[in-house]
Structure to design on (639 residues):
């Protein structure tokens, strides 16, 4: 048939004509626009820098064994110990980096957990509706009505009460953060699914007789990915903050395992606060810089990926 | 010939806060194998809801098929379980929509969306399905099939997308294709091409088409049999030539009169006065009465039944009932 010729004109042509290498897939298009946003790129660079330094840094530190050395107790920064020493004579710089490993891991892991949990439950609630929706959303509402910090405090206090070994506490804290993190996420995902499922292309999949599994994972899920990426990114920052708060109060990850939060605990001590700023400024600054960088990057991502902004 | 699709007294109602909307109220129609049946009518007369009822797409808390029967190939579609219905949809009955732009998933490549029904219903492997998909794209008259397979919907024009939709719909050789205003969103030159394509596919594959449209030009070009709907009811039906030459119902006459005729200049095009009645305020009457030039006393109080008026034509109008004339 020769009739296809006439309709080749129009906006579609430019896209289809692009070279195979520069094929304007949705992803490469988004990436290009993200790279134009200098602030977001800067935020991303800072995040990558923090991750790299925290995970690789301690390998080059001569003080990675965390040996207690009373001779160096509370020493101010020097050429040998760039950020000084803490109350047990340990190198503060090394500990900040090691703490960064824990804090970033906890942030990342609890984000993954809450995205999995919230995403899955949100999809189920939005797609199947009915009883499943009622149960899931009422549980979510319940969790959302209780302010999360008191809830985390109680859980943290229980952990201390049951004398959970410090090594395990890290994992339990991840789970705790995921549990308070999923309801908001599930709500957003559910809302998105509710609007997507009424779209014509979803009706088309029904007409084609596709299975629910295929509809969910091949058709709905790809439409959710941009939303999930944005929420997930912003979630990491929140999780790092929550973990810090908990650890600051001694209810999260507890010493000797270092985290940024439990290191700032030093600021609780009037003398440390006034006389030894090298104990609490480095971890505090690390939290601040990391969270701000993640949020800047997340906002940039949202500008690029938000479906409402239109491609 | 046996009926492929047999709709009997179909009633699809929507319950709204203001009351029950009888969107489809006792519609019967038949599609035989290899036949093209057109449903014609104004917006809001229940054409699309009839089609959606056949596909089982009327769902949710408000809309419901409350009565009647839909039989496809001897099987009762209304009684089918979801799983059984799934094997019929896309396989035996396919459907294309009005808006090709929004009927394809924007984040999936065209190829991905064409192979799906093939893998689902024909149990083809991804590779086989892809090969078949390329054949299908060629079949619907798109050149460079390989490149189209790797494109996203937003990279193609509306006409191309409607071709893709048709390719997807006919991929499993359905016995019946339901086309819900397939050309309304396209410009006129593309319309003709799409209709040509549908007709050639029908002739090759021997499938039946249930075409829903408000465009009488499309009807004249495609239909074997025409069903005219008004306010959720069938007001007239018949063979296309009969109906065009000798429309019985005043509504059909009005529709035909309001169609522009080439080479015939008129100052103003005829339009049927008034509007479709509010479906919530219908009482027993001929629903067309307040727009009808031939309105009689009985039209306001009693509903005419669909009645044979010869030449295989049926109409629901008091003008053709002796009983009514006796009343006057």
């Amino acid at each position: 048939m020769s009739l296809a010729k006439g309709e080749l004109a129009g906006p579609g042509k430019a896209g289809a004509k692009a070279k195979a290498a520069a094929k304007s897939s949705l992803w490469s298009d988004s990436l290009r626009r993200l790279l134009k946003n200098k602030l977001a790129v800067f935020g991303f660079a800072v995040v990558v820098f923090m991750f790299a330094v925290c995970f690789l840094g301690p390998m080059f530190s001569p003080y990675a064994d965390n040996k207690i050395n009373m001779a160096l107790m509370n020493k101010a920064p020097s050429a040998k110990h760039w950020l000084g020493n803490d109350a047990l004579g340990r190198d503060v710089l090394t500990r900040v980096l090691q703490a960064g490993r824990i804090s970033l891991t906890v942030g990342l892991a609890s984000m993954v957990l809450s995205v999995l949990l919230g995403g899955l439950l949100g999809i189920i609630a939005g797609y199947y509706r009915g009883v499943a929706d009622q149960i899931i959303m009422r549980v979510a509402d319940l969790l959302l009505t209780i302010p999360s910090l008191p809830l985390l405090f109680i859980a943290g206090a229980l952990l201390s009460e049951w004398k959970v070994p410090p090594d395990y506490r890290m994992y339990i804290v991840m789970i705790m953060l995921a549990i308070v993190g999923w309801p908001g996420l599930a709500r957003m995902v559910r809302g998105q699914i509710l609007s997507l499922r009424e779209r014509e292309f979803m009706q088309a999949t029904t007409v084609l007789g596709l299975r629910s599994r295929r509809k969910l994972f091949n058709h709905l899920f790809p439409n959710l990915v941009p939303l999930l990426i944005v929420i997930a990114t912003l979630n990491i920052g929140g999780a790092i903050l929550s973990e810090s708060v908990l650890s600051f109060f001694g209810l999260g990850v507890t010493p000797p395992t270092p985290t940024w939060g439990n290191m700032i605990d030093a600021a609780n001590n009037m003398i440390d606060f006034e006389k030894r700023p090298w104990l609490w400024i480095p971890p505090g600054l690390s939290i601040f810089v990391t969270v701000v960088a993640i949020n800047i990057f997340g906002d940039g991502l949202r500008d690029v990926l938000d479906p409402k902004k239109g491609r | 010939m046996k009926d492929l699709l047999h709709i009997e007294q179909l009633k699809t109602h929507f319950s709204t806060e203001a009351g029950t909307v009888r969107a489809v109220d006792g519609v019967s129609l038949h599609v035989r194998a290899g036949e093209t049946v057109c449903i014609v009518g104004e917006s809001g007369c229940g054409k699309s809801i009839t089609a959606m009822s056949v596909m089982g797409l009327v769902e949710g808390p408000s809309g419901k098929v409350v009565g009647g029967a839909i039989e496809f190939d001897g099987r009762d579609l209304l009684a089918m379980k979801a799983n059984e219905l799934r094997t019929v949809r896309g396989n035996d009955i396919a459907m294309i929509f009005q808006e090709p732009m929004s009927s394809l998933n924007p984040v999936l490549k065209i190829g991905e969306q064409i192979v799906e029904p093939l893998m689902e219903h024909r149990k083809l492997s991804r590779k086989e399905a892809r090969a078949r998909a390329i054949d299908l794209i060629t079949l619907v008259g798109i050149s460079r099939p390989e490149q189209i397979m790797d494109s996203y919907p937003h990279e193609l024009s509306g006409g191309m997308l409607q071709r893709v939709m048709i390719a997807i719909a006919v991929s499993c050789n359905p016995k019946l294709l339901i086309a819900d205003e397939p050309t309304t969103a396209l410009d006129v030159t593309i319309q003709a091409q799409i209709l040509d394509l549908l007709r050639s596919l029908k002739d090759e594959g021997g499938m039946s088409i249930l075409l829903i449209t408000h465009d009488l030009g499309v009807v004249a070009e495609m239909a074997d049999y025409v069903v005219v709907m008004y306010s959720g009811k069938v007001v007239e039906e018949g063979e296309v030539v009969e109906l065009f030459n000798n429309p019985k119902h005043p509504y059909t006459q009005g529709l035909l009169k309001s169609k522009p005729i080439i080479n015939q200049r008129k100052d103003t095009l005829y339009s049927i006065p008034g509007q479709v009645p509010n479906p919530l305020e219908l009482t027993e009457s001929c629903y067309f009465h307040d727009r009808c030039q031939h309105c009689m006393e009985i039209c306001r109080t009693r509903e005419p039944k669909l009645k044979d008026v010869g030449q295989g034509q049926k109409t629901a109008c008091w003008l053709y009932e002796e009983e009514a004339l006796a009343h006057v």
